[in-house]
Amino acid sequence: MERKPKIIILDGYVENPGDLSWAGIEALGDVTIYDRCPNDDDEIIRRIGDAEILVANKTRISRRVIESTKLKFITVLATGYNVIDVDAAKEHGISVSNVPGYGTASVAQFAIALLLEICSRVAHHSEAVHQGKWASCPDWTFWDYPLIELSGKTMGIIGFGSIGQAVGRIAKAMGMRVITQSRSIREEGRAIAEYVDLDTLLREADVISLHCPLFPETQGIINKANIAKMKDGVIIINNSRGGLVVEQDLADALNSGKLAAAGLDVVSEEPIKSSNPLLTAKNCFITPHISWAPKESRQRIMDTTVENIKAYQQGKPINVVNP
Known about the structure:
Distance between the termini: 33 Å
Strand content: 15-25%
Structural class: alpha/beta
CATH class of the largest domain: Alpha Beta
Low-confidence stretches: none
Shape: globular
Mean pLDDT: 97
Strand order of the largest sheet: 8-7-6-9-10-11-12
CATH architecture of the largest domain: 3-Layer(aba) Sandwich
Largest sheet: 7 strands, parallel
């Protein structure tokens, strides 16, 4: 009887807190699942043992880990793979695969949810009603925050890949003018937005939504100098990468009133630190990196991970990030 390959899942809980099934992966090998794993090389090496296949999420897989184990394949339960030393993996003949494109719909939906919460203050007013403020109001209605209509305003999207385009389509459907700054210009993008340079976007946008990768040229793209180029009262949305924002500069602009509000699902260091200046900034809405987390999106991650492992076992790995 052929021995099943050992498969280790190092930090599976966030992907599957109990509402999905590991059965697809379990059918492919002798699987050990850890819900969580400390970022400690010695413990990671101990848990991996002599496993052939590693399924990782946010646990850092260093050169030392790679050189101290017998891994032959790593697949990441995410699109981002910066936690894996892919160069070391390549040097040791280890393919690393990821899960591209699983969250386009959910991330775009969440970006718009952040924007609509800022503009309509749904949660705040629902809480006010439950506190009795409507029942005791002398008028038939009330609101205690200015409400914002988006139709006719300009949405500026930095980064116009699949997620940026999905956000653009929703914004356009709400009657917004959509402009974008992107490294590449695509014909399908032209049907949604007008391509402009960054300074034009900063100058003309009422809402700026970030959907670009974190590259050296985009690191801290929302900074004091670029904020100064924006019109007063701009709304910033970021559910892409926390490093796109210089957080102290954003906090200062919110506190001064230069910016109207920010909706963030990501920060520079996660989980967020109690010292993060955005926690005390005015009109700053922060959620705990959950844009990707609907069950439907996580099921796509699971399904693609199964296909990644199958393809590796067939000698034709797919979604490889270190070819």
